[in-house]
Write a structure and sequence with these properties.
7-stranded mixed beta sheet; globular; glutathione-dependent formaldehyde- activating enzyme (gfa); binds zinc ion; 1 helix; about 140 residues; about 5% helix
Length: about 140
């Protein structure tokens, strides 16, 4: 049950229980928001993720709500509309608590990441996706 925090420590977020899924997201929204080719995400039910200190800025890119520290700019988590889930930036987790199960939104990938994990073109089937996998 770790509590994670932003770079400056103003915002703390407690995570209760096991994540629903852990993955790398290659979507074009994550690319824009993080300035990165892809991001490691630990996905929880929204009620497992609680802000316990500080007051992050909550803002939207399209329909996804995103929590960012007002002081240091660390992106803490994102809440896609209508799913009841919060995707926590897995880089903030304590060492050893992130083990990716798949890559998703590979249709937007800037650079293929070739490994043994499944590479879903859009969302995985378990998340309502139906586009299958890419060929890398
Ligand atoms: Zn901060
Ligand atoms: Zn994404």
């Amino acid at each position: 049950m770790p509590t994670i925090q932003c770079h400056c420590g103003a915002v703390k977020v407690s995570l209760e229980g096991a994540p629903v899924a852990q993955f790398y997201c290659h979507c074009d929204h994550c690319q824009r928001v993080h300035g990165a080719a892809y991001v490691p995400v630990s996905m929880y039910r929204a009620d497992q993720v609680r802000v316990v200190a500080g007051e992050p800025s909550m803002w939207k890119l399209h329909t996804t709500l995103r929590a960012t520290c007002r002081d240091c700019g660390t992106r803490l988590f994102a809440e896609p509309a209508g799913l009841g889930m919060r995707g926590v930036m897995a880089k903030l987790l304590p060492e050893g608590l992130f083990e990716a199960q798949f890559h998703m939104q590979c249709q937007h990938a800037l650079l293929p990441v070739k490994d043994a994990l499944p590479h879903f073109k859009g969302f995985p089937d378990a998340f309502g996706g139906s586009e299958g996998v890419v060929d890398w």
